[in-house]
Amino acid sequence: MLAGLLAACNDGPWERSCEDGEGCADDESCEINLSAPGYKVSHSICAPLCEGEDDCPPPGSGNAEPMCSDRGVCELRCGDGIACPSGTVCVYDRCKWPH
Questions:
Q1: Most exposed residue of 10, 19, 45, 90, measured as fewest CB within 10 angstroms of its CB?
Q2: Beta bridge partners of 82
Q3: What percent of the chain has pLDDT over 70?
Q4: Domain residue extents for the chain
């Protein structure tokens, strides 16, 4: 039972990577970066959907800044001394999980 509770705590916003739109909750979007050659997924994150900044939760670690994009998807802004959550990396000024 304790293992299930701990897994639930570690499976919140910003805690999952994804590929081909799979692996995210219904209220999340699979945000990816592609790399050449072959255009394979290099980095991804399950990001909450949003209508405004207040809909975007803070990360569990780091000091990345949550923001709502004009596409209605939360993003974690990073770079210039702003750290991503543990395990994620800063790619084009946004935090994502490496593949």
A1: 10
A2: 79
A3: 88
A4: 2-98
